[in-house]
Design a protein that fits this description.
The complex is a heterodimer of chains A (153) and B (297). By secondary structure, chain A is an alpha+beta fold. Chain A contains 5 helices and 5 strands; from the N terminus they run E-E-H-E-E-E-H-H-H-H. In chain A, helix 2 packs across helix 5. The chains are: A alpha+beta (153), B alpha+beta (297).
Chain lengths: 153, 297
Amino acid sequence: MTLKTITLTVNDLVETVDVPQNMTLLQMIREKLSLTGTKNGCAAGECGACTVLMNGEPVNSCMVLAAECEGANIVTVEGLAKAGKLSTLQDTIIEAGGVQCGFCTPGMLISATALLKRNPNPTDSEIRSAIVGNLCRCTGYVRIVDAIKMAAK
Amino acid sequence: MINPHPGLPELQYVKPATLQEASKFLADNAGVAKPYSGGTDSFVRLRDGILKLDYLVDIKGLEGTKELSFDPQKGLTIGAAITMNQVARHPDVIKHYPNLAEAAESVASYQLRNRATIIGNICNASPAGDTIGTCMILDGVLKVHGVDGVREVPLNSFFLAPGRTVLKPGDVVVAVQLPLPPKGLVGTYKKLGRNRIGDLSIVAVAVLGYPTPDSASGYRFRIALASVAPVPFESFKAEGVLSGNKITPELIDEAAGATMDSVTPIDDVRGSARYRKQMVKNLTREALTEVWTKLSK
């Protein structure tokens, strides 16, 4: 099967990558770009561990073909910190104790970052609706919601 | 057992430049090529081995697929590449078809709704499809491009069986057209899942009502049911109950009972047939009561 060459922006860097046509964006991020912060949980678009920003909007990267990302702007969890300084959400999720095993955390941060961008002052209900697609097996979500509220202030 | 391997089976990604090219390619490769937009149903089925393909044909960006527009004369046009989130937050949808925004927003998660499309929901033809019932009772018509050109297919004649529609090889659904809603229309979408939000429906009910001089009760109701039959379907029996007499809580109850009588649900991992029958009655009653309360103000 012939490879496809795509050029896209990932965490503010322009990358040119040769991808198999059936490779997902998730696989490309992890295997071709070595950005292993983004995780594979379910490979079905349900758990959100693979969430990245694509052109500003959160998507399940396991459900996107790398081949269709020509010209796309991708942000992964590695791209949230700027010049070595953690983002507000990254600080508050640590402060609120919203990380246990950490597996859901990258996807959770991406979803929350997008939420606060479109809704800077969300209610509890709006926060919970926004992270419906990010499953956490450890924390029970309360401290994650707290972290997002803290960051919104 | 679902295999959570992140890869997809070997296949080729095809991006045709025009609808004509797409239809020809799909027809020439019938059975091993499939159009896709968000891929949120196709990828799952590919990974499960239910769907076997050599080619995935990306139809996003073909003529008409990115249209999302409201015409005060003709109604709403939703292209095949338009996502659930785009529909749910569009000001004209919120203003003129709020029940469609409600149905679109009930799907899965925010991330998934950035890829999932209304057209994909329709073409996947699951009886659980959240937006199908609402589009049906809004009298939606599909614009389909095939090897023989463009044709229109009303939604009420589109579904044959779970996952099966009248589409033929070479067909690409370009858009759905929803006519102008009748004046005074009120609608709602009630969905029962195993959790508060995010699940596929155990049962769901889409109801709309509007005043009309053409019925003895002064109102016409449309009721579409999800996850209780092989296809999403409209319960004409229940609608008939609500057009004959003055609308009262007792009549609403009778209509809810009529939906229960008209459905043929199955036992599956999300619920039993018996539970679904009872729940479709309760959800219909709840939805009708809510719509009637707003209509009768």
